[in-house]
Amino acid sequence: MHYLRFFALACLLCASTFVFSKSNIDNTQGIVGFAGEHAGMAFSGEFTRWNAKISLPPEASPSIEAEFQLASARTGDAIYDETLPEGDWFDVKNHPVGKFTSSNIEAVDNGYLVEGTLRLRGKTLPVSFKLNENGERLQSRFAIDRLEYGIGLDSDPEADWVSREIQMTLDIPKP
Amino acid sequence: MFTDNRYPDKRYHSLSVLLHWLIAGGLLFMFASGLYMVNAEMPKADQYKLFQIHKASGVIMLWAIALRLLTRWLTHQPPLPSELSVKEQKLAKLGHLALYIGLCVMPLSGWLMVSASPFGLPTFVFVDWIKWPHIPFVERNKTIESLARNTHWIVASGLLLIIIGHIAAVIMHKKKQNIQLLKRMWWFKNDQN
Ligand code: HEM
């Protein structure tokens, strides 16, 4: 009986450390942004609703899992904000959530090297980026190819209007 | 509002007159902006902005034209001058019908094109809080989009020709029969022509 109790307690402890070692963060604490060009004019915006679970080395099993609501993209330009959720762009009706899942995280000089997959518009593609340590913040900037995700593929396959490369920016607190 | 026309047999109702000239000015702008934005070399940003202006103005044109039809329906139309031959009267009526059809088809085909475009850009009427909706059930329909685009420029060409004919007819009747047709479409107060 004693053993059983001890085992249960141990399990609980393990589970709680496992849960607590993962830090939950969301849009109140950081920024998940994007930037590109439309008609030769720079635009930028951010997702105003997202959340992530983060644990970084030296934790035993470091990982990052982030989900962002694609309908929450805001650029400050009403035309863009109305267009982004449309079928040929984020298609939020069919794919409301974007998702990043890490596959490998390594501690490097001044930060972490993160590899994983990004799911947008129903397509899951590999991405990697460096999270740079900057005081108490972790920051990153990396490019994705919107056409690989089929974003704007019908309207603008030649990137005549909207740049093919979209810069993603991350600014989050250190867990 | 619709009964204050004191010269029902001499000229059109004041509201019709106002709308006629507003729409004439608007058409000038719609043709100029449409042709320029499609054909001229310019930075993409300017082209994009011109498209938005053309769309917003086009929606206002649609409203003005709807109002024009409504006033036409609710007010008395002065009969065509009796100096015109039966054939000329027929032609005038046909020409005016064609003008009305062109006036309706232009904004409607523009609206349809924009609604069916895969781009999905909304139409704001100059301010962010007046959003003109898209026509439902045609979204991302490239067939309908190109159909509407062809209609838009073919009818634009036709309308331009009819407008030239319209103006030519006014000049011709002045020269040939000395009829002051312009007075019918202006705010003239005196009964003597
Ligand atoms: C009386 C109303 C209107 C007139 C006279 C007019 C006239 C024109 C003309 C002359 C062109 C150039 C056609 C060409 O060369 O291909 C054009 C293009 C265009 N118009 Fe309009 N328009 C009107 C209303 C509208 C409205 C209401 C919209 C949309 C809400 C609209 C959207 C467009 C668009 C998107 C184009 C570009 C077509 C292309 O990409 O080839 N127009 N318009």
Structure explained in plain terms:
The complex is a heterodimer of chains A (175) and B (193). The longest helix of chain A has 20 residues, at 2-21. Chain A has a single domain, classed as Lipocalin, CATH 2.40.128.110. Chain A is globular and about 65 Å long. Chain A has an eleven-stranded antiparallel β-sheet. With 175 residues, chain A is mainly beta. Chain A has two helices and eleven strands. In chain A, 15% of the residues lie in helices and 49% in strands. Chain A has helices spanning 2-21, 78-83; strands at 23-26, 31-38, 41-47, 50-55, 63-69, 73-74, 97-108, 111-120, 123-134, 137-145, 165-173. Chain B has 193 residues and is mainly alpha-helical. Chain B has a single domain, classed as Cytochrome Bc1 Complex, Chain C, CATH 1.20.810. Chain B is built from five helices and two strands; from the N terminus they run H-H-H-E-E-H-H. Chain B has helices at 14-39, 44-74, 86-116, 142-177, 181-184; strands spanning 123-124, 131-132. Chain B has a two-stranded antiparallel ribbon. Chain A binds chain B through residues 38-41, 78-79, 82-83, 86-89, 154-156, 160-161, and chain B through 43-45, 47-48, 52, 117-122, 124, 128, 131, 139-140, 142. The structure holds protoporphyrin IX containing FE. Protoporphyrin IX containing FE is lined by residues 27, 30-31, 34-35, 38, 51, 54-55, 58-59, 61-62, 106-107, 110-111, 113-114, 123, 149, 152-153, 156 of chain B.
